Amino acid sequence: MANFKITPYEVKGEIDYDKVVSRFGAQKVTKQLIKKMKALPMIMRRGYIYAHRDFDKILAKKKFAIVSGRGVSNKIQLGHLTTLRFVKELQDIYGCYVFIPFSDDEKYMYKRDLSFEKLKELTYENILDIIALGFDPKKTDFVVDTQNMNQEIYNLAVRCAKRITFSTVKATFGFTNENNIGITFYPAMQAAHILYPTVKKGLPVVVPVGIDQDPFIKLSRDVAYKLKLTKPGGVYCTYVPGLKGGGKMSATDPDSTIYTTDTPKEVEKKIKKYAFSGGQPTIKEHREKGGNPDVDVSYQYLTFFMEDDKKLKKIYADYKSGKMLTSELKQICIDTINSFLKEHQKKREAAKKNIEKFMLRD
Amino acid sequence: MANFKITPYEVKGEIDYDKVVSRFGAQKVTKQLIKKMKALPMIMRRGYIYAHRDFDKILAKKKFAIVSGRGVSNKIQLGHLTTLRFVKELQDIYGCYVFIPFSDDEKYMYKRDLSFEKLKELTYENILDIIALGFDPKKTDFVVDTQNMNQEIYNLAVRCAKRITFSTVKATFGFTNENNIGITFYPAMQAAHILYPTVKKGLPVVVPVGIDQDPFIKLSRDVAYKLKLTKPGGVYCTYVPGLKGGGKMSATDPDSTIYTTDTPKEVEKKIKKYAFSGGQPTIKEHREKGGNPDVDVSYQYLTFFMEDDKKLKKIYADYKSGKMLTSELKQICIDTINSFLKEHQKKREAAKKNIEKFMLRD
Question: What gap in Å lies between CA A183 and CA A162, rounded to an integer?
Fold first, then answer.
């Protein structure tokens, strides 16, 4: 048994991605698949898309859509951005229709003390971050379940619900009789979100997620089959680790998380104080033995935020050899993230004027 | 144990309404309650509203709303009309806001072979019947779940769902793990329908139903309490018996049912052939012993469709004494129903132009 845990509600431990692929029964991303891509989004160049379902088949089609949902339980952090930036790159490369459902209703029903008002604020903040990434408003639709729920989506959820028993969601998600009937219904709504571009626009869909969300994809594939629709595919991204390393960055631990709204000083402080280091205890020892970039969180973050492959390679080598110190590596990480966030925060402000362009209207 | 069965999914046997009241724990309709009414709708004059929950409290308020849902699993028959005509009379007497949700989504999820297309046809036919009864379009809204589902109603369903566990619906409605997750979610949507006028317009709600639907009312009352809303009240009508007598008229047995679209000839044939008679085997015996209007279905129907109390009383006496034969009683029933349906069918045609006036739009 590997020393990690992955469910739709929890991800923790040191994740062994090879074991994950076999445990979930997904397909590995192969060289042949990579070759089929017109161009490679950054996280594919870095090897962070490690598994998929049917992505090869979907790439073989002329056009496809991407569905990338947001749970809106908290502010957006760098981990969330990674998947969304990948989606944006795929949109640029393939001209994909991108559908982003905000399942604020699910969060409301799942969390005891979360109000509609609080969720509305969070959704607004999330929307700004997503627009800031540069999605094409002509090819991108947002649906916020409690704001612009759509008759077609509701009806599709009804069609999906008819084909999913309580037994199935119990076995798939571990629901019990004490769960509320909204939470147990929700997989039907999520399947509707995933299948919406297929029903509405006749496009096959791919869903990029952390593999913890795979049960939703499998369920949607079963329902698609029953509704005689093309089964949605999945692409599985590795997790951006939390500052303290391991598992995935979680918005619920502020010390382990960098939010898109953090100031340069906050970013500096968090990385200096919390970012797990692959360096040696003393400078002397570090110069002699070198550091370990493979466990160093600052280095990991660079792999998600530094576009330049060559520069990144040099940093890897220099840190490993001991030529580069942990403090130097951390400074590069701080500068890279702050430079990214400076731009991002500007675009985030500008996004305030453009929200309506993205809201799905009948 | 009384020899009848009443659940939201089945009503059969000889119903003892006194036992029903105590079994369901409702309140009896008392003389004091009757006195509080500004005027009496026909079926209250006939004693067919036999029990209630909080109707006395709601009458004490200045204004109230009525919610009267339609399941749309079949064409409208005389049994359905009875409740709806009662609602229309209450609207006339009290100026009530009337909200009529058509839960076609529930029917779709409940019945294996029912398609959206078939439901759309049935809903259209149902709508014509309801408009034909003369509801005031300024005070009446229809929502068809798969046609004009409304964001506020959806959000209210989400708020209700958060407060209902699977255990509760399992215990209340006898659901099992093999039910689909749409059916198990549906009580939340139904509660939302019932509470909508309270949330939207601040009006207390009364729901007139057969007592088989009482579990939905009780559940809505629990949810209203949790949401700090006025608990909806219920008024319980006796069932219009099927032609063959006993239980309630069911749209699924055409031989036992008169539809609003039946021709005069069909009505004549059905009543002559199937209407259970309280008469004696021979005319001679009938003249001697008299008939039994209390079990005679033709007479029962007159109590629902003949406005004139005096005339009805005379028929009762004449049939009981043997002065009136079964064939004569049946003929009066045929004429009364056909006269009602002739008018109704005219208004039903005219309703085709007025549908949009009744559809709830944001």
Answer: 16
- Give the span between the Cα atoms of B145 and B157, in whole angstroms: 12
Q: Where are the alpha helices (DSSP H) in chain A?
A: 17-24, 31-36, 42-45, 55-59, 78-94, 104-110, 116-132, 151-161, 166-173, 181-201, 214-226, 264-274, 283-289, 297-305, 309-321, 326-351, 355-358
Residues from chain B that touch A109, judged by Cβ atoms under 8 A, are 158, 161-162
Chain A residues with a Cβ under 8 Å from any Cβ in chain B? 105, 108-109, 116, 145-149, 151, 154-155, 157-159, 161-167, 169-170, 175-185, 187-188
Residue A5: how many other CB atoms lie within 10 Å:
12
pTM for the model: 0.93
Alpha-carbon separation of residue B290 from B281, B284, B339 (angstroms) = 11, 10, 28
Q: Do A154 and B164 touch (CB under 8 A)?
A: no
Domains and CATH numbers, chain B: 4-238 (3.40.50.620), 254-348 (1.10.240.10)
Candidates B109, B155, B165; nearest CB to A180: B165
Cα separation, A269 vs A279, whole angstroms:
18
Of the candidates B136, B132, B134, B137, the one whose C-alpha atom is nearest the C-alpha of residue B342 is B132
pLDDT tens for A135-191 read 999 999 999 999 999 999 999 999 999 999 999 999 999 999 999 999 999 999 999
